[in-house]
Design a protein that fits this description.
Layout: E1 18-22, E2 35-41, E3 46-50, E4 54-59, H1 60-67, E5 80-83, E6 87-97, E7 106-110, E8 113-116, H2 119-126, E9 134-143, H3 147-153, E10 157-161, H4 164-167, H5 175-181
Parallel strand pairs: 5-9
Antiparallel strand pairs: 1-2, 1-10, 2-3, 3-9, 4-5, 6-8, 6-9, 7-8
Length: 197
């Protein structure tokens, strides 16, 4: 009697909640030295927010003014707005600690960190009742079926565990090096050439 082998899953293991760290040889200049928090990842798509690319001259206070949201008690008016990625770059995203959340609006990303796109969180931030930690970004990074997996096979990205301290660290200039250091690797030892394993 012929036996049928048990089905095997070809679905990739989800990397949601992990950080993607751009390798030095990243071909896409929009992602050079990027650190991206992957918020969603399955066999159909991947979506993440770059956490180390502040937009020049754009602050959270300025963004709230532009949106007509009162901000009398904003905790950090000079906080930079981040370039989250090239997709839907007219849309805002807030990565934040989960002391603030709304059922049906907040996507848990990694322990203690969520993602919300609703205006409610910006209104609460303007009134001083928002989350204790937050990063406001415009746009996101997105991949279609198999695209991220292909880039990982081509050694375009390293992956590492995300920590709340690294996600919300506002010293953006050295966040890439800090992310690499969590792997026990020095940025100076990474090859600037991508290739296939």
């Amino acid at each position: 009697m012929r036996r049928t082998p048990p089905p095997t899953s070809s679905a990739p293991a989800s990397l949601a909640g992990q950080l993607l760290i751009a390798m030095p040889g990243m071909n896409d200049p929009r992602f050079a030295h990027s650190v991206i928090l992957l918020c969603a990842h399955d066999e159909e798509h991947a979506m993440g927010i770059a956490i180390n690319t502040p937009m020049r001259g754009i602050t959270v206070e300025g963004l709230l003014k532009q949106l007509g949201i009162p901000n009398e008690t904003l905790a950090d008016p000079d906080q930079a707005v981040l370039f989250g990625g090239p997709v839907e770059n007219e849309r805002g995203f807030v990565l934040h600690s989960l002391d603030w959340h709304r059922d049906g609006m907040t996507l848990p990303v990694t322990p203690g960190v969520g993602l919300t796109t609703a205006r409610d969180i910006l209104e609460d931030m303007g009134q001083g009742s928002g989350p204790h930690f937050s990063s406001v970004a415009v746009g996101y990074a997105g991949w279609g079926p198999g695209q991220l997996e292909e880039e990982l096979r081509a050694n375009a990205w390293l992956t590492c565990a995300a920590s709340r301290s690294l996600i919300f660290d506002d010293r953006y200039d050295d966040k890439w090096q800090k992310a690499i250091a969590t792997l026990g690797v020095s940025a100076a030892h990474l090859s600037g050439h991508s290739g296939r394993a």
